[in-house]
Amino acid sequence: MNTEIHDKRIPIIRIKDFLIVSIQVDMHDKLAIQLQSQILNEIEKTGAKGVLIDISVLEMVDSFIGRMLSGMASMASIMDAAVVIVGMQPAVAITLVELGLEMPGVDTALNMEKGMEMLENRIKEQDIDF
Amino acid sequence: MMMQEIVKDNTWEELGKHAIDTEFDIVNARQLVRQHAKNLRMGIVDQTRITTAVSELFRNMYNYANGGEVLIETGIVEGHKALIITCIDHGPGIADLELAMSDGYSSGMGMGYGLPGTKRLVDRFEIQSKVNEGTTVRIMKWK
User: Fold this and answer.
1) Count of structural domains within chain A
2) pLDDT tens for each residue of A83-120
3) Distance (Å) from the C-alpha of residue B9 to the closest C-alpha of chain A?
4) Residue B3: inside a domain, yes or no?
5) How many domains does the structure of chain B reveal?
6) What distance in Å separates the CA atoms of residue A64 and residue A76, rounded to the nearest whole number?
7) Smallest CA–CA separation between B104 and chain A, in Å?
8) What are φ and ψ of residue A79, in 5° steps?
């Protein structure tokens, strides 16, 4: 993993109705909070229906980052967008459970492709509902 | 409730001392801890556990105690080659340690937040605290 501390923004890529974010650095708290508002702004600007957050490179998710991710999922849901976290490393998943951190409202998928399918299905269901 | 404190012996060796004053210090210090865990040939899950545990402790110091100091050591503890991390702050202290270490408290906020979760991630967890003087948490992890 890159051990440098980046003060740069984490890029958000838009593909069709989706936003794709790949977290490639060990985030300090301000960067995590900045990413949260950046994604919400992007949802507002683009009307995106789903957000995929790739954390496959993250070697650690502590309670702060965990709460940031679940907070973002609830905020996005209020803005009518679904958030799927993809690629969590098994060691990270084990540690989160042992830490006792619950992440309500956060959907997860094994990889980008499955995450994308998940979001597409979600949007289809919504189309049927309304 | 508290376990017998482990006494330092001549197998212990200091690996570093770092101040936790900024968010960047939290990130730097937890990466250092991971590197030390790697050097001790801990598996990936144990590396993640100790890195996450120290991240929680460092953030506690940063958020609630105006920062603090971390001492990284290695040594033989109960027959294991252990990584030993001591977090020392001079913050408000924790009035009721027993309450802070009980699981329900982990959903609260403030000094001592999340300590039970952190304890589950390590092999030894020792805490001393005095109101208005500060808190010292020492954790140990081995393979």
Assistant:
1) 1
2) 999 999 999 999 999 998 888 778 999 999 999 999 99
3) 30
4) no
5) 1
6) 18
7) 11
8) -90, 15
Cβ-Cβ contacts under 8 Å, A62 against chain B: 52, 55-56, 59
- Which pTM value belongs to this model? 0.90
Alpha helices by DSSP H, B76-131 = 97-100, 115-120
Give the pLDDT band (50/70/90) at residue A2: very low
In a domain, B11, yes or no: no
Report residue A55: phi and psi, to 5°: -115, 25
Please tell me the predicted confidence (pLDDT) of residue A104: 79
Answer yes or no: are the C-beta atoms of B92 and B111 closer than 8 Å: yes
What separation in angstroms does the CA of A74 have from each of A55, A105, B40, B75, B140?
18, 6, 40, 45, 36
The answer to whether residue A24 sits within a structural domain is: yes
pLDDT in tens, B34-61: 999 999 999 999 999 999 999 999 999 9
Lowest mean pLDDT among A63-72, B18-27, B68-77: A63-72
In a domain? residue A4: no
Q: Is residue B99 part of a domain?
A: yes
- DSSP character string of A7-33: -SPPPEEEETTEEEEE--S---HHHHH
Per the CB < 8 A criterion, the answer to whether B13 and B83 are in contact is no
Which residues in chain A have Cβ-Cβ distances shorter than 8 Å to B59? 29, 62, 64
Mean pLDDT of chain A: 90
DSSP B107: G
